[in-house]
Backbone:
């Protein structure tokens, strides 16, 4: 019987280790290693996937409760909607916990304009009213449905989506995210109100319109 050479055995061992390394990294515990880490947003201007923890001795019961989503949002704006965030910036106890929530109020005919959340999947429930909810996949397929109170929706992470109030009265949605700070890329502001602004010739070519159309749209979002 032929015995494998030492070099072949070593090579096989290296290959096995290389194959197992990804599995070892996936098995690492991604959860917090402490009960809580209430964000101390005044401690440092630097944050890496979160904020420094407030000393446990300074944490109080009030840190774990937030009433921001109980307040009706002001919908007197160009979109007729208002997003109230319950994320780590407004509710520091969410730091490191990987969750957050939003309240979205809609005036009749109001729209939460096309946007995406780069760091989270969104799940929402209609509390009041009648909403058209839609999103577009990376394959350019549009999915939508009209929802009423008690019905839920889910928007996969990073996909462009919107909600529009198609009822006769006000509407309200409560949305949850699997990120303490999901972020929001709101397309009208991103494309037409960035600082500095995207060059007009880029937008005219992208949307196949004349420059005066781009300038007209930009003027609607100028401060």
Residues:
């Amino acid at each position: 019987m032929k015995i494998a050479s030492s070099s072949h055995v070593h090579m096989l061992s290296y290959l096995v280790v290389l194959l197992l390394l990804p599995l070892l990294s996936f098995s690492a515990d991604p959860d917090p290693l402490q009960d809580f880490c209430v964000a101390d947003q005044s401690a440092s201007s630097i944050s890496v996937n979160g904020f420094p923890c407030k000393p446990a001795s300074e944490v109080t019961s009030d840190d774990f409760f937030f009433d921001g989503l109980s307040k009706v949002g002001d919908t007197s704006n160009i979109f007729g909607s208002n997003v109230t965030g319950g994320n780590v910036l407004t509710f520091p106890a969410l730091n490191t916990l990987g969750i957050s929530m939003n309240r979205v109020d809609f005036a009749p005919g109001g729209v939460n304009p096309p946007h995406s959340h780069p760091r989270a999947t969104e799940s929402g429930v209609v509390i009041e009213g009648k909403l058209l909810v839609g999103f577009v996949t990376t394959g350019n397929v549009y999915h939508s449905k009209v929802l009423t109170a008690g019905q839920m929706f889910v928007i996969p992470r990073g996909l462009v989506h919107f909600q529009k109030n198609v009822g006769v009265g006000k509407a309200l949605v409560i949305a949850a995210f699997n990120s303490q700070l999901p972020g929001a890329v709101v397309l009208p502001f991103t494309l037409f109100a960035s600082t500095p602004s995207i060059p007009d010739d880029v937008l005219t070519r992208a949307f196949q319109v004349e420059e005066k159309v781009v300038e007209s749209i930009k003027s609607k979002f100028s401060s």
User: Anything to note?
Assistant: Residues 39 and 92 are 5 Å apart (CA to CA). DSSP finds four helices and ten strands in the chain.
